[in-house]
Amino acid sequence: MMYRIACFACLASIAISSLGCKPTASKSADAKPLGTFSLAWSEYPSWSVFGVAGELGLINKEAGKLGEYEKKWNVDIVLKQADYDPCISMYGTGTVDAVCITNMDILGPADSRASVAILPTSTSNGADACIGVGINDLEGLKGVTTFGLEKSVSQYCFERCLEQKGLSKSDYPFSQMDPGAAATAVQTGDSKVKSIIVWNPYVMNTLRSKPDSKVLFDSSSIPEEIIDMVVVAKDSLDKPGGKNFAMAVLDVYYAINQRMADSKTADETLIAIGANFSKLGLDDMKTIVTQTRFYSTPDAALALFEGKKFTEETMPAVASFCESHGIIGAKPGIGFNDASQKVNFESSYLKWTQQGLTPDKL
């Protein structure tokens, strides 16, 4: 199975009224929404943005009640927060219209449900790391078993980083272990576990609690290969109001990013995101957002979705990894602005947001 598990499901309630924001245009509160759409999200830095948006009132996460951006785009958005695997299951079974998911993990559900990636939210830039105990370098890691989640972003990161460094994975054994258990084993001094590959906050907490542990390599070696995204089912986009829903999601995401970029609201916004991601404080979140780099503007997102490296190298390599490791039965059709493919990376919504398209022009 494919996981980037969010293991801290408790949603913190915080006072963030000073972060409240208003869209540039809005529909009357009495206007009937074009439709109701649902977004499943799990705790991860750039996905916790949607939890903060719900607290700010940009989105009212309950059905039948509209937040500011729902009024603007005339749609009703229901936010469903859960651990990562249940989010994938909800999306795969058609329980929700959209999901926060990685570019790797969407390949499975898309085989039975045509999917459209509308928004890259962030990329792992050191957030996934191989940590060794008493091991100084990759030569010292040779022959030592690394523990992590099989058939996942962790195993992909492990093998791709070795490949990128010109090393053979046959010299570096990998074994299945739950990431929480792997991190705990290192932190408590389990002599059987000398190397793990995990993600934040496990990385941060392990390095902090185990002085003789160190990062041997991390996802910064494979830039823009592990991508966190929002994906919408094609059949949902085709429903009345589907385009409005997509635009509202982008609008909300960039509104929070603007607050992160504004010195007056940056710290409070990071604190709010941290409360929705493992209950981390400001100092930790300042580190987290350097290791989980947000695509904070449409320009940055478009550069990824339309870049040759991502379209011609990264996604084919990700699909090949998933097929060779039995994560998917066969590679689904992957397209870029190609609605005929099972997984379509669609840049139209990003361009419309970039252009400042208003609901009456959609």
What is the overall silhouette?
A: globular
SS class? alpha/beta
Order of helical and strand elements: EHHEHEEEHEHEHEHEEHHHHEHHEEH
Strand content: 15-25%
Number of helices: 14
Biggest beta sheet summary = 8 strands, mixed
- Count the strands? 13
Radius of gyration (CA) equals 20 Å
Helix content: 25-40%
The pLDDT mean sits at: 93
Which regions have little confidence, pLDDT < 50, spanning 5+ residues? 1-21, 24-29
N- to C-terminal separation? 38 Å
Structure description:
- This protein is of the alpha/beta class.
- The chain contains 14 helices and 13 strands.
- Strands 1, 2, 3, 4, 10, 11, 12 and 13 form an eight-stranded mixed sheet that branches.
- The longest helix has 20 residues, at 242-261.
- The chain is globular.
Secondary-structure map with pairings?
Layout: E1 36-41, H1 48-56, H2 68-73, E2 76-81, H3 84-92, E3 98-102, E4 115-124, E5 128-133, H4 138-141, E6 146-148, H5 153-164, E7 174-176, H6 179-187, E8 195-199, H7 202-209, E9 213-218, E10 227-233, H8 234-237, H9 242-261, H10 266-275, H11 282-291, E11 292-294, H12 298-305, H13 308-324, E12 334-336, E13 343-345, H14 348-354
Helix pairs in contact: 1-9, 1-10, 6-7, 9-10, 9-14, 10-11, 12-14
Using brief descriptors, characterize the structure shown.
362 residues, alpha/beta, 18% strand, 8-stranded mixed sheet, 3-stranded antiparallel sheet, globular
In short:
By secondary structure, the chain is of the alpha/beta class.
